[in-house]
Amino acid sequence: MTALGDDMMGIAANLQDAINYAQDCKIALFDAQLQDGITGTTIGAALAQSGATVLFMTANPDLLGEGVPGTLGVISKPIFDLELVAVIQIAADFRSGADVFAPERFNRLAS
To answer: Which domain holds residue 43?
Structure first.
Protein backbone atom coordinates (compact mmCIF):
# COMPACT_ATOMS: atom_id res chain seq x y z
CA MET A 1 0.00 0.00 0.00
CA THR A 2 2.89 2.35 0.68
CA ALA A 3 3.92 2.08 -2.97
CA LEU A 4 0.43 3.34 -3.87
CA GLY A 5 0.78 6.33 -1.57
CA ASP A 6 -1.08 4.91 1.43
CA ASP A 7 0.03 3.66 4.80
CA MET A 8 -1.04 0.29 6.09
CA MET A 9 -2.45 0.52 9.59
CA GLY A 10 -2.04 -3.14 10.43
CA ILE A 11 -3.56 -6.56 10.21
CA ALA A 12 -6.79 -7.15 12.10
CA ALA A 13 -6.87 -10.85 12.88
CA ASN A 14 -10.04 -10.60 14.96
CA LEU A 15 -12.89 -8.29 15.94
CA GLN A 16 -10.95 -6.49 18.69
CA ASP A 17 -7.98 -5.78 16.41
CA ALA A 18 -10.36 -4.32 13.82
CA ILE A 19 -12.02 -2.10 16.42
CA ASN A 20 -8.59 -0.80 17.40
CA TYR A 21 -7.84 0.24 13.78
CA ALA A 22 -11.34 1.33 12.79
CA GLN A 23 -11.23 4.98 13.83
CA ASP A 24 -8.60 6.00 11.28
CA CYS A 25 -9.39 3.47 8.56
CA LYS A 26 -10.20 4.75 5.06
CA ILE A 27 -9.89 1.53 3.04
CA ALA A 28 -10.25 -1.92 4.56
CA LEU A 29 -9.61 -5.32 3.01
CA PHE A 30 -11.31 -8.06 5.00
CA ASP A 31 -11.81 -11.77 5.05
CA ALA A 32 -15.28 -12.92 6.07
CA GLN A 33 -13.87 -15.33 8.61
CA LEU A 34 -11.31 -14.16 11.16
CA GLN A 35 -9.72 -15.84 14.17
CA ASP A 36 -12.86 -15.32 16.23
CA GLY A 37 -15.28 -16.67 13.64
CA ILE A 38 -17.34 -15.09 10.88
CA THR A 39 -16.89 -11.58 12.26
CA GLY A 40 -15.55 -9.98 9.08
CA THR A 41 -19.07 -9.24 7.86
CA THR A 42 -19.94 -7.41 11.08
CA ILE A 43 -16.71 -5.44 10.99
CA GLY A 44 -17.10 -4.67 7.28
CA ALA A 45 -20.63 -3.33 7.74
CA ALA A 46 -19.57 -1.17 10.71
CA LEU A 47 -16.57 0.27 8.86
CA ALA A 48 -18.66 0.96 5.75
CA GLN A 49 -21.24 2.73 7.90
CA SER A 50 -18.49 4.91 9.38
CA GLY A 51 -17.35 5.96 5.88
CA ALA A 52 -14.59 3.48 5.07
CA THR A 53 -14.38 1.79 1.69
CA VAL A 54 -14.56 -1.94 2.41
CA LEU A 55 -13.59 -4.84 0.16
CA PHE A 56 -13.67 -8.51 1.04
CA MET A 57 -10.93 -10.95 0.07
CA THR A 58 -12.07 -14.42 0.99
CA ALA A 59 -11.87 -18.05 -0.04
CA ASN A 60 -15.53 -18.31 1.04
CA PRO A 61 -17.51 -15.64 -0.83
CA ASP A 62 -20.73 -17.55 -0.12
CA LEU A 63 -20.40 -16.41 3.52
CA LEU A 64 -21.25 -12.91 2.28
CA GLY A 65 -24.61 -13.94 0.83
CA GLU A 66 -26.03 -11.10 -1.25
CA GLY A 67 -23.44 -8.73 0.15
CA VAL A 68 -22.77 -6.60 3.18
CA PRO A 69 -24.50 -3.20 3.20
CA GLY A 70 -22.21 -0.36 2.19
CA THR A 71 -19.28 -2.49 1.08
CA LEU A 72 -17.73 -2.39 -2.37
CA GLY A 73 -17.33 -6.06 -3.30
CA VAL A 74 -15.38 -9.26 -3.00
CA ILE A 75 -12.45 -10.97 -4.67
CA SER A 76 -11.87 -14.67 -4.11
CA LYS A 77 -8.61 -15.94 -2.63
CA PRO A 78 -6.03 -16.89 -3.55
CA ILE A 79 -5.19 -13.46 -4.92
CA PHE A 80 -2.03 -12.61 -6.83
CA ASP A 81 0.11 -9.56 -6.08
CA LEU A 82 -0.92 -7.64 -9.19
CA GLU A 83 -4.59 -8.38 -8.53
CA LEU A 84 -4.17 -7.06 -4.99
CA VAL A 85 -2.63 -3.85 -6.32
CA ALA A 86 -5.55 -3.53 -8.77
CA VAL A 87 -8.12 -4.09 -6.02
CA ILE A 88 -6.50 -1.47 -3.79
CA GLN A 89 -6.53 0.94 -6.74
CA ILE A 90 -10.22 0.16 -7.32
CA ALA A 91 -10.96 1.07 -3.71
CA ALA A 92 -8.95 4.29 -3.94
CA ASP A 93 -10.62 5.27 -7.23
CA PHE A 94 -14.06 4.46 -5.85
CA ARG A 95 -13.32 6.49 -2.75
CA SER A 96 -12.33 9.49 -4.86
CA GLY A 97 -15.47 9.23 -6.99
CA ALA A 98 -13.70 8.02 -10.15
CA ASP A 99 -14.99 5.31 -12.45
CA VAL A 100 -13.55 1.94 -11.52
CA PHE A 101 -12.31 -0.88 -13.70
CA ALA A 102 -12.34 -4.22 -11.94
CA PRO A 103 -10.35 -7.38 -12.62
CA GLU A 104 -12.36 -10.29 -13.94
CA ARG A 105 -12.41 -12.06 -10.56
CA PHE A 106 -13.72 -9.01 -8.68
CA ASN A 107 -17.43 -9.18 -7.95
CA ARG A 108 -19.43 -6.13 -7.06
CA LEU A 109 -21.89 -7.13 -4.38
CA ALA A 110 -25.35 -5.78 -3.88
CA SER A 111 -25.32 -3.32 -1.02
So the answer is: 2-108
